[in-house]
Protein backbone atom coordinates (compact mmCIF):
# COMPACT_ATOMS: atom_id res chain seq x y z
CA UNK A 1 0.00 0.00 0.00
CA UNK A 2 1.45 3.41 -0.99
CA UNK A 3 1.83 6.34 1.40
CA UNK A 4 -0.76 8.23 -0.64
CA UNK A 5 -3.28 5.39 -0.20
CA UNK A 6 -2.65 5.18 3.53
CA UNK A 7 -3.16 8.94 3.98
CA UNK A 8 -6.34 8.90 1.88
CA UNK A 9 -7.75 6.02 3.97
CA UNK A 10 -6.93 7.81 7.21
CA UNK A 11 -8.66 10.99 6.05
CA UNK A 12 -11.74 9.04 4.95
CA UNK A 13 -11.99 7.22 8.26
CA UNK A 14 -11.69 10.50 10.14
CA UNK A 15 -14.54 12.02 8.17
CA UNK A 16 -16.74 8.95 8.75
CA UNK A 17 -15.96 8.75 12.47
CA UNK A 18 -16.53 12.44 13.21
CA UNK A 19 -19.38 13.74 11.00
CA UNK A 20 -20.74 15.95 13.79
CA UNK A 21 -17.50 17.87 14.22
CA UNK A 22 -17.57 19.12 10.61
CA UNK A 23 -20.94 20.87 10.83
CA UNK A 24 -21.90 24.33 12.07
CA UNK A 25 -22.36 24.16 15.84
CA UNK A 26 -22.74 27.90 16.40
CA UNK A 27 -26.29 27.52 17.77
CA UNK A 28 -25.45 24.60 20.07
CA UNK A 29 -25.39 25.31 23.82
CA UNK A 30 -22.13 24.89 25.70
CA UNK A 31 -23.74 22.20 27.86
CA UNK A 32 -27.09 20.54 28.46
CA UNK A 33 -29.11 18.93 31.23
CA UNK A 34 -31.89 16.35 30.92
CA UNK A 35 -34.69 16.26 33.50
CA UNK A 36 -35.25 12.74 34.85
CA UNK A 37 -36.93 11.81 38.15
CA UNK A 38 -35.92 10.43 41.56
CA UNK A 39 -32.97 8.15 42.20
CA UNK A 40 -33.92 4.48 42.32
CA UNK A 41 -36.25 4.88 39.35
CA UNK A 42 -35.78 4.07 35.67
CA UNK A 43 -35.89 7.69 34.47
CA UNK A 44 -32.77 8.59 36.45
CA UNK A 45 -30.81 5.53 35.28
CA UNK A 46 -31.94 5.91 31.64
CA UNK A 47 -31.55 9.69 31.53
CA UNK A 48 -28.13 9.75 33.18
CA UNK A 49 -26.79 7.10 30.82
CA UNK A 50 -28.28 8.81 27.77
CA UNK A 51 -26.82 12.19 28.74
CA UNK A 52 -23.36 10.65 29.16
CA UNK A 53 -23.68 8.85 25.81
CA UNK A 54 -24.61 12.12 24.06
CA UNK A 55 -21.84 14.07 25.78
CA UNK A 56 -19.15 11.55 24.89
CA UNK A 57 -20.09 11.40 21.22
CA UNK A 58 -21.07 15.02 20.53
CA UNK A 59 -18.23 16.69 22.40
CA UNK A 60 -20.64 18.71 24.55
CA UNK A 61 -20.90 18.69 28.33
CA UNK A 62 -24.12 17.06 29.55
CA UNK A 63 -25.72 15.45 32.57
CA UNK A 64 -28.96 14.52 34.31
CA UNK A 65 -30.96 16.40 36.92
CA UNK A 66 -33.09 14.76 39.62
CA UNK A 67 -36.65 16.10 39.33
CA UNK A 68 -40.18 15.25 40.37
CA UNK A 69 -40.70 13.34 37.12
CA UNK A 70 -42.80 13.82 33.94
CA UNK A 71 -45.07 16.65 35.11
CA UNK A 72 -42.21 18.75 36.43
CA UNK A 73 -40.07 17.89 33.41
CA UNK A 74 -42.80 19.21 31.11
CA UNK A 75 -42.82 22.50 33.02
CA UNK A 76 -39.02 22.82 33.12
CA UNK A 77 -38.61 22.06 29.42
CA UNK A 78 -41.50 24.33 28.41
CA UNK A 79 -40.00 27.31 30.23
CA UNK A 80 -36.49 26.53 28.98
CA UNK A 81 -35.06 25.96 32.46
CA UNK A 82 -34.03 22.58 31.07
CA UNK A 83 -33.45 21.94 27.37
CA UNK A 84 -34.29 18.23 27.54
CA UNK A 85 -36.46 15.93 29.63
CA UNK A 86 -38.30 12.62 29.85
CA UNK A 87 -42.07 12.39 30.04
CA UNK A 88 -45.00 10.01 29.87
CA UNK A 89 -47.85 10.55 27.41
CA UNK A 90 -50.54 11.02 30.07
CA UNK A 91 -48.79 13.85 31.97
CA UNK A 92 -47.68 15.32 28.63
CA UNK A 93 -51.28 15.59 27.45
CA UNK A 94 -52.48 17.12 30.71
CA UNK A 95 -49.64 19.63 30.68
CA UNK A 96 -50.23 20.67 27.06
CA UNK A 97 -53.92 21.17 27.78
CA UNK A 98 -53.17 23.40 30.79
CA UNK A 99 -54.23 20.85 33.37
CA UNK A 100 -50.92 20.32 35.14
CA UNK A 101 -51.33 20.53 38.93
CA UNK A 102 -47.94 22.30 39.01
CA UNK A 103 -49.16 25.22 36.88
CA UNK A 104 -52.95 25.15 36.39
CA UNK A 105 -54.03 27.01 33.29
CA UNK A 106 -50.55 27.14 31.69
CA UNK A 107 -50.61 25.37 28.33
CA UNK A 108 -47.12 23.90 27.99
CA UNK A 109 -46.89 23.99 24.22
CA UNK A 110 -43.18 24.71 23.74
CA UNK A 111 -42.25 21.06 24.28
CA UNK A 112 -41.38 18.82 21.32
CA UNK A 113 -40.96 15.05 20.97
CA UNK A 114 -37.51 13.60 20.22
CA UNK A 115 -37.73 9.79 20.29
CA UNK A 116 -39.68 6.87 21.84
CA UNK A 117 -38.30 5.36 25.05
CA UNK A 118 -40.33 2.55 26.59
CA UNK A 119 -43.63 1.71 28.23
CA UNK A 120 -44.16 2.43 31.92
CA UNK A 121 -45.94 -0.50 33.59
CA UNK A 122 -48.01 0.21 36.69
CA UNK A 123 -47.24 -2.52 39.22
CA UNK A 124 -47.56 -3.03 42.95
CA UNK A 125 -44.99 -4.41 45.37
CA UNK A 126 -45.56 -5.58 48.95
CA UNK A 127 -43.54 -7.61 51.43
CA UNK A 128 -44.37 -11.32 51.26
CA UNK A 129 -44.79 -11.26 55.05
CA UNK A 130 -47.72 -8.83 54.66
CA UNK A 131 -49.91 -11.50 53.09
CA UNK A 132 -50.86 -9.08 50.29
CA UNK A 133 -50.92 -11.13 47.09
CA UNK A 134 -53.52 -9.25 45.06
CA UNK A 135 -55.05 -5.78 44.86
CA UNK A 136 -58.14 -7.01 46.71
CA UNK A 137 -55.87 -8.09 49.60
CA UNK A 138 -54.79 -4.50 50.30
CA UNK A 139 -56.44 -3.67 53.65
CA UNK A 140 -58.55 -0.56 54.19
CA UNK A 141 -56.45 2.35 55.32
CA UNK A 142 -53.20 0.84 54.00
CA UNK A 143 -50.37 3.31 53.45
CA UNK A 144 -49.33 3.26 49.81
CA UNK A 145 -46.20 4.93 48.43
CA UNK A 146 -46.90 6.51 45.03
CA UNK A 147 -43.47 7.90 44.18
CA UNK A 148 -42.43 11.56 43.93
CA UNK A 149 -45.21 14.16 43.98
CA UNK A 150 -46.26 14.97 40.42
CA UNK A 151 -44.73 11.80 38.96
CA UNK A 152 -46.63 9.56 36.54
CA UNK A 153 -47.32 7.13 39.36
CA UNK A 154 -48.48 9.87 41.73
CA UNK A 155 -50.69 11.37 39.03
CA UNK A 156 -52.47 8.20 37.94
CA UNK A 157 -52.00 5.35 40.40
CA UNK A 158 -54.07 6.88 43.24
CA UNK A 159 -56.96 7.39 40.81
CA UNK A 160 -56.59 3.81 39.57
CA UNK A 161 -56.67 2.49 43.15
CA UNK A 162 -59.78 4.53 43.89
CA UNK A 163 -61.42 3.19 40.71
CA UNK A 164 -60.66 -0.34 41.96
CA UNK A 165 -62.20 0.41 45.35
CA UNK A 166 -58.97 0.51 47.39
CA UNK A 167 -59.08 2.67 50.53
CA UNK A 168 -55.61 4.03 51.33
CA UNK A 169 -53.40 6.65 52.91
CA UNK A 170 -51.12 8.38 50.44
CA UNK A 171 -47.34 8.64 50.83
CA UNK A 172 -44.87 10.37 48.49
CA UNK A 173 -41.10 10.09 48.20
CA UNK A 174 -38.30 8.89 45.94
CA UNK A 175 -38.47 5.26 44.83
CA UNK A 176 -35.35 4.43 46.84
CA UNK A 177 -36.81 6.02 49.97
CA UNK A 178 -40.18 4.31 49.58
CA UNK A 179 -38.46 0.96 48.99
CA UNK A 180 -36.61 1.46 52.28
CA UNK A 181 -39.85 2.38 54.08
CA UNK A 182 -41.54 -0.75 52.71
CA UNK A 183 -38.67 -2.92 53.88
CA UNK A 184 -38.79 -1.31 57.34
CA UNK A 185 -42.54 -1.83 57.65
CA UNK A 186 -43.33 1.90 57.63
CA UNK A 187 -45.67 1.58 54.64
CA UNK A 188 -47.75 -1.33 53.37
CA UNK A 189 -47.41 -1.13 49.59
CA UNK A 190 -45.44 0.68 46.91
CA UNK A 191 -47.30 1.45 43.69
CA UNK A 192 -44.52 1.68 41.11
CA UNK A 193 -44.80 3.24 37.66
CA UNK A 194 -41.44 2.99 35.91
CA UNK A 195 -39.67 1.14 33.14
CA UNK A 196 -38.68 -2.41 34.01
CA UNK A 197 -36.69 -3.67 35.71
CA UNK A 198 -37.18 -0.94 38.32
CA UNK A 199 -33.89 -0.52 40.21
CA UNK A 200 -35.64 -0.07 43.57
CA UNK A 201 -37.61 -3.32 43.13
CA UNK A 202 -34.53 -5.26 42.04
CA UNK A 203 -32.74 -3.98 45.15
CA UNK A 204 -35.68 -4.86 47.39
CA UNK A 205 -35.95 -8.46 46.28
CA UNK A 206 -32.25 -8.99 46.93
CA UNK A 207 -32.71 -7.88 50.53
CA UNK A 208 -36.10 -9.37 51.40
CA UNK A 209 -39.02 -11.47 50.08
CA UNK A 210 -41.53 -9.45 48.08
CA UNK A 211 -44.74 -10.02 46.14
CA UNK A 212 -45.01 -8.26 42.77
CA UNK A 213 -48.72 -7.89 42.20
CA UNK A 214 -50.55 -7.73 38.87
CA UNK A 215 -54.19 -7.23 37.88
CA UNK A 216 -56.93 -9.76 37.21
CA UNK A 217 -59.21 -9.55 34.15
CA UNK A 218 -61.84 -7.36 35.79
CA UNK A 219 -59.31 -4.97 37.34
CA UNK A 220 -57.36 -4.54 34.09
CA UNK A 221 -60.51 -3.92 32.05
CA UNK A 222 -61.79 -1.32 34.51
CA UNK A 223 -58.50 0.60 34.52
CA UNK A 224 -58.07 0.47 30.72
CA UNK A 225 -61.60 1.81 30.26
CA UNK A 226 -60.94 4.78 32.56
CA UNK A 227 -57.33 5.83 31.87
CA UNK A 228 -54.97 6.44 28.88
CA UNK A 229 -53.23 3.07 29.32
CA UNK A 230 -53.05 -0.30 27.60
CA UNK A 231 -52.49 -3.87 28.75
CA UNK A 232 -48.90 -4.88 29.45
CA UNK A 233 -47.25 -8.15 30.46
CA UNK A 234 -44.22 -8.08 32.76
CA UNK A 235 -42.13 -11.12 31.75
CA UNK A 236 -41.36 -13.55 34.57
CA UNK A 237 -37.66 -13.15 33.82
CA UNK A 238 -37.78 -9.48 34.83
CA UNK A 239 -37.59 -10.16 38.57
CA UNK A 240 -36.46 -13.08 40.73
CA UNK A 241 -39.75 -12.82 42.65
CA UNK A 242 -41.96 -13.49 39.62
CA UNK A 243 -42.80 -17.14 38.97
CA UNK A 244 -45.01 -16.34 35.98
CA UNK A 245 -45.75 -13.32 33.75
CA UNK A 246 -47.64 -10.52 35.49
CA UNK A 247 -50.46 -8.70 33.68
CA UNK A 248 -50.62 -4.95 34.42
CA UNK A 249 -51.24 -1.73 32.43
CA UNK A 250 -48.74 0.69 30.92
CA UNK A 251 -48.20 4.14 29.38
CA UNK A 252 -45.60 5.21 26.78
CA UNK A 253 -42.61 7.46 27.54
CA UNK A 254 -40.82 9.83 25.15
CA UNK A 255 -37.73 11.99 25.34
CA UNK A 256 -38.51 15.65 24.69
CA UNK A 257 -36.76 18.93 23.99
CA UNK A 258 -37.62 22.57 24.27
CA UNK A 259 -38.87 23.40 20.78
CA UNK A 260 -36.32 26.23 20.44
CA UNK A 261 -33.28 23.96 20.85
CA UNK A 262 -30.94 23.81 17.83
CA UNK A 263 -32.37 21.64 15.04
CA UNK A 264 -28.95 20.24 14.18
CA UNK A 265 -28.22 19.27 17.80
CA UNK A 266 -31.52 17.43 18.18
CA UNK A 267 -30.96 15.73 14.82
CA UNK A 268 -27.57 14.42 15.95
CA UNK A 269 -28.96 13.29 19.33
CA UNK A 270 -31.83 11.40 17.72
CA UNK A 271 -29.48 9.89 15.14
CA UNK A 272 -27.11 8.63 17.85
CA UNK A 273 -29.95 7.25 19.95
CA UNK A 274 -31.96 5.57 17.21
CA UNK A 275 -28.95 4.08 15.41
CA UNK A 276 -27.27 2.61 18.50
CA UNK A 277 -29.91 0.57 20.29
CA UNK A 278 -27.33 -1.90 21.61
CA UNK A 279 -25.66 0.97 23.47
CA UNK A 280 -29.01 2.19 24.81
CA UNK A 281 -29.88 -1.31 26.07
CA UNK A 282 -26.53 -1.43 27.86
CA UNK A 283 -27.63 1.74 29.69
CA UNK A 284 -30.97 0.22 30.70
CA UNK A 285 -32.84 -2.90 29.54
CA UNK A 286 -36.04 -0.87 29.11
CA UNK A 287 -34.40 0.65 26.02
CA UNK A 288 -35.13 -2.51 24.01
CA UNK A 289 -38.19 -0.57 22.79
CA UNK A 290 -36.25 2.68 22.19
CA UNK A 291 -36.39 1.98 18.47
CA UNK A 292 -37.65 4.14 15.57
CA UNK A 293 -40.55 1.78 14.78
CA UNK A 294 -42.25 3.05 17.97
CA UNK A 295 -42.31 6.68 16.82
CA UNK A 296 -46.03 6.37 16.16
CA UNK A 297 -46.74 5.89 19.87
CA UNK A 298 -46.48 9.66 20.22
CA UNK A 299 -50.02 10.96 19.88
CA UNK A 300 -49.59 14.05 22.06
CA UNK A 301 -46.49 16.15 21.40
CA UNK A 302 -45.50 17.95 18.19
CA UNK A 303 -42.20 16.69 16.79
CA UNK A 304 -39.04 18.73 17.06
CA UNK A 305 -37.92 19.65 13.50
CA UNK A 306 -34.52 18.03 14.10
CA UNK A 307 -36.10 14.78 15.23
CA UNK A 308 -38.66 14.79 12.41
CA UNK A 309 -35.85 15.27 9.88
CA UNK A 310 -34.08 12.11 11.04
CA UNK A 311 -37.27 10.01 11.09
CA UNK A 312 -38.39 11.23 7.66
CA UNK A 313 -34.93 10.63 6.17
CA UNK A 314 -35.07 7.05 7.43
CA UNK A 315 -38.51 6.09 6.17
CA UNK A 316 -40.66 6.88 9.22
CA UNK A 317 -43.16 9.37 7.88
CA UNK A 318 -44.05 12.32 10.12
CA UNK A 319 -46.54 14.68 8.39
CA UNK A 320 -45.73 18.38 8.24
CA UNK A 321 -48.70 19.27 10.45
CA UNK A 322 -47.25 17.14 13.26
CA UNK A 323 -43.92 19.02 13.25
CA UNK A 324 -43.40 22.13 15.37
CA UNK A 325 -43.30 25.22 13.19
Automatic annotation (TrEMBL):
Question: Which InterPro entries does the record cross-reference, listed alphabetically?
Answer: TRAP_TAXI
| Keyword set, alphabetical order | Signal
Matching entries from Gene3D superfamilies are given as:
Periplasmic binding protein-like II (3.40.190.10)
Signal peptide extent: 1-22
State the superkingdom. Bacteria
One Pfam family this chain carries?
Answer: NMT1_3
Q: Spell out the protein name for this chain.
A: TRAP transporter TAXI family solute receptor
